[in-house]
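2 proteins. here.
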Amino acid sequence: MNGPGTPTLDQLQVLLAVVDTGSFAAAARHLGRATSAISYAIDTLEAQLDLVLFDRGTTRKPRLTPQGEAVLAEARLVTHGVDRLRARVRGLAEGLEAEISLAVDVMFPTARLVDALQAFQTAFPTVPLRLHVEALGAITQLVLNGTASIGISGRFHLNGKGIEQIQIGGTRLIPVAAPFHPLACPQAQIPGAGRDHIQLVLTDRSPLTDGIDFGVIGIKTWRLADLGAKHALLLAGVGWGNMPETMIRQDLDAGRLVELKLPDWGGGIYGMSIIRRTDSHPGPAGQWLIDRFVGQLDDLSDEEKESYVTEP
């Protein structure tokens, strides 16, 4: 038994035109064809599919049959896919990148990332994006080995060889602990007190800065490769550590975490830079994304703009 025939793109577009305009005559005017040509295209499509798509007998306005409704849904998917294909090809012909691969430091504020990527989707709907979220030297590693074309990295994790960077401010880090942690008591926050309790430290998964500590003052340390796990352990009172203010602001306001005033460690601004390889220049979409991140500086505080090196 032979299956249904293969409809042409033109037939599917005629079907959509009839449904969207409400009649064969209106579809003919919309497509600049004779009404007889529209009728012929629909008749041929019904014959190929061996289905009746329109109920022509009960109303003057063509009404889709249940089978027609099902075919219509698939026709929209097919024509939409073709439109996307043509837009993608047009973009490639105009020099747009086939894909953007972005590696972002886990400390980078989520609101800034979402703002940039939402705007990117609107500006470049045909360019797919691959996002990597890593920590410390792993960002530089991804850029150096070509996995990511653009990186957003903490500035002091950078290996300068083969890397160009653009400063884009930073995010404030705050030393915190659970309210029932011994360090949460103001009287306990004396010089050296942080050394006597477990410090939760974000560790590096790349060889670039493996084994190098950034501002670790605790003698007892737990090293974690995941910022979410560090957050959960802080809430549980397992230790103390530094966290991005944007990630824990609600915890501070609700009293689930408290800011520590340690004499020998006060947190600070974690500086961020956009990085890319010196031998690889971004295309139009990549440069637009870089410019978007740079443009966000206007909305940062003076402290965040003048970001300096601190510990993660």
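next one coming up
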Amino acid sequence: MIEVVAALIWRDGKFLICQRPANKKRALLWEFVGGKREKGETLKDALKRECFEELDIAVEVNDVFCEVTHAYPDVTVRLTLFNATTSDEPKMLEHNDMRWIFPAQIDEFEFCPADKDILNLLKQRYC
């Protein structure tokens, strides 16, 4: 099982989503910014590193929003989604696209399957 971290970053009632690059697995699907935890990293440190590497932002990692485990055909991931904040403006260093969306817009985007339960929770809480 792979440990994956992601950030739920809010701004003006919207949260940040990123579209995976065309050359990676689950190409062009939408997701939260984040990635794999490296050996020796805490989950929070991994998320700070991933946000910096992918979007050139410094984040303050807060509490856990939720955790999910998902089995893809090629890998099983345990995803921990943290509430996070930033005052930096994200830059697309790795993703194909990024958007700030309202929870009511979730169904307009095709997300990675591992995010399904998270998205349902967001819709329940904020729609």
